[in-house]
Amino acid sequence: xxxxxxxxxxxxxxxxxxxxxxxxxxxxxxxxxxxxxxxxxxxxxxxxxxxxxxxxxxxxxxxxxxxxxxxxxxxxxxxxxxxxxxxxxxxxxxxxxxxxxxxxxxxxxxxxxxxxxxxxxxxxxxxxxxxxxxxxxxxxxxxxxxxxxxxxxxxxxxxxxxxxxxxxxxxxxxxxxxxxxxxxxxxxxxxxxxxxxxxxxxxxxxxxxxxxxxxxxxxxxxxxxxxxxxxxxxxxxxxxxxxxxxxxxxxxxxxxxxxxxxxxxxxxxxxxxxxxxxxxxxxxxxxxxxxxxxxxxxxxxxxxxxxxxxxxxxxxxxxxxxxxxxxxxxxxx
Length: 333
Ligand SMILES: [Zn+2]
Fold this sequence. Notes:
Layout: H1 19-23, H2 27-44, H3 49-62, H4 66-79, H5 81-97, H6 101-112, H7 119-131, H8 135-147, H9 151-158, H10 168-180, H11 187-191, H12 198-214, E1 220-226, H13 228-237, H14 248-261, E2 266-272, H15 274-284, H16 291-300, E3 307-309
Helix pairs in contact: 2-3, 3-4, 3-5, 4-5, 5-6, 5-7, 7-8, 7-10, 8-10
């Protein structure tokens, strides 16, 4: 098997700050082309302008064009609103990657005061700070996330299916940061659901088997998928298995159309996170890079988290690009 641009397995994956290394990489040319294509799309899809530009900023960063990435994000920040808030989370990432810690910290303070700040921004910012080893700052952002949980969220976390909760991974991240800071467990740490037990997993497997045997034709195809941001994360975590392949999302779209057109099958997508898969593999003592592990992970996922493919033409694309399906993967020919 040939692996493109993958670092040797015995070295650390490329740190996100390694811009100089990236500039000498042929991947920089691919990134530059992607950035230019994205910018060209803005005129065509004015409704999705902010999402497209944020994606373009990351492509410029990958291409080693930090100033250009920063300029795009600063313009979006100035425009304000929820998009401006997301742009600021990205701007902070760009500034840290560029080694401008003080400027990044000023932007973090501005983000904290942003009127549109929600739990999503808080969770992403906390995780990114923790990844960079800024534990005290990360904890402050985890606490902002916790402060935005509703009583329904808290009930779900305490319930028997707490391990399936979407908030659980963020709370686990918070607990880990607190442990690393040498802090004793607090009331929020008590809320962190444990991993699924063997019984939980067996119950789910049985449920899936019952479901499978009870259903007549047509067959249902269940697919574990990474969204665009999660695939980027998977490329970072497992470069030998996942490569930053431009055509990947087009290829899977065509593949599913073939399945659908060959008759009878409906397709359900189960979007997963790279960290979720890594955690499951660790709990079960499995190799996260094996297909078998993904298949077993699929059996633990809730049907509530699945999405039917294809989405509606005007619905958000399943790949989490932030654009309408008809303008994103649905536009593939
Ligand atoms: Zn898409």
